[in-house]
Here is the input.
Amino acid sequence: MVHFVGAGPGAPDLITVRGQKLLGEADVIIYAGSLVNPQLLSLAKEGCAVYNSAVMTLEEVTAVMAQGEKENKTTVRLHTGDPSIYGAIREQIDWLEQQGIPFDVTPGVSSFCGGAAALSHLGGAEYTLPEVSQTVIITRMAGRTPVPQEESIEKLAAHKASMVVFLSSGMIPELSRRLMAGGYSGSTPAAIVYKATWPEEKTIVGTVEQLPALAAEHNITKTALIMVGDYLGGIYERSKLYDPNFTTEYRQAAK
Ligand code: SAH
Here is the structure.
């Protein structure tokens, strides 16, 4: 059996209770060494075989899974954040299905949630503010992995929704330019969150236009999220759900 587990964004106590239990029971752990906090490996039981997928190919990862299955072992495949976001789990799952190897997935706290928590004292706690934006766009710049044309930064920027950009901290000047070309004004609030929930976490706030200078000043080149949108600003409407004049399934409005 193979368990895909989301490790969370960094802080070791942000793994789920289920993920923690599975890690403690595993005979084999294959972890994404580039971003998973190695402290999580101290949960492994004695004799557990530990592999770092950062130095492995898909074929090497699946070979370890196949060997584990042959020996009737339990394997945990530990992915950073939540495995459904840039986790490359689909190709592993399809292979497991072809081989008839059972698997399941335990979600994790994605870094975009860790990033919002990190900005909670700086106005960034909620992506979905009433009358500001009710949509979160999770995307990336094209790098060695291409992005479909219809999802170019310019096209997505035209929505002026709340945006979180992954895997792009090395391309911030181009990102800033394209965000503005697409529709955000240069003065739209923006933030860079470096290593959210890790001890070395940095939160940097400014505007879309200031992003390149802020990234250079703080030396941000990797492991960061770029967050953009008016949700980082100060203007919004309070929620209907908690409005005394609004009836919900659970509560009558005041007369
Ligand atoms: N599955 C992961 C994302 C993996 S892609 C998740 O759900 O978060 C790797 C990218 O995620 C990095 O380039 C960076 O943009 C972002 N990232 C991962 N952990 C981060 C963290 N703690 N703080 C800021 N960005 C992070």
